[in-house]
Design brief:
The protein has about 130 residues and is mainly β. The strands form 2 sheets. Strands 2, 4, 5, 6, 9, 10 and 11 form a 7-stranded mixed beta sheet that branches. A 4-stranded antiparallel beta sheet has the order 1-3-8-7, with no helix packed on it. It is built from no helices and 11 strands.
Length: about 130
């Protein structure tokens, strides 16, 4: 069983920065894809960024490119999401997730492709 715990959320002014952390534990997950998603009331869970745990290749949704950076520290089993130049529309609950094998729907940008989820951390960006 894989477990994930997010932290680092909080309140920040527009233009500010925040770094989220996701500590991963459980069975071997070197072949897993690690993803960050976010969700607001009334909306579907939205893909933000992902990283290959072993290779380190990354991918971002268009709305955060150039502002957010996903990374991982293999020794600490931790995935990070560095968020800069934050905007009010970035306000959401942010979730860390993991998956492996063939993604459902053929893409790792879909929430359905991931098997394990953390409980989320709230990020609020004021105007």
């Amino acid at each position: 069983q894989v477990q994930l715990v997010e932290s680092g959320g909080g309140l920040v002014q527009a233009g500010g920065s925040l770094r989220l952390s996701c500590v991963v534990s459980g069975r071997t997950f070197s072949g897993y894809v690690m993803g960050w998603f976010r969700q607001t009331p009334g909306k579907e869970r939205e893909f933000v960024a992902r990283i290959s745990w072993s290779i380190g290749s990354t991918y971002y949704t268009d709305s955060v490119k150039g502002r957010f950076t996903i990374s991982r520290d293999n020794a600490k089993n931790t995935v990070y999401l560095q968020m800069n130049s934050l905007k009010p529309e970035d306000t959401a609950v942010y979730y860390c997730a993991t998956g492996s094998g063939t993604p459902a729907g053929g893409t790792w940008s879909s929430a359905s492709a991931y098997y394990y989820w953390g409980q989320g951390t709230q990020v609020t960006v004021s105007s």
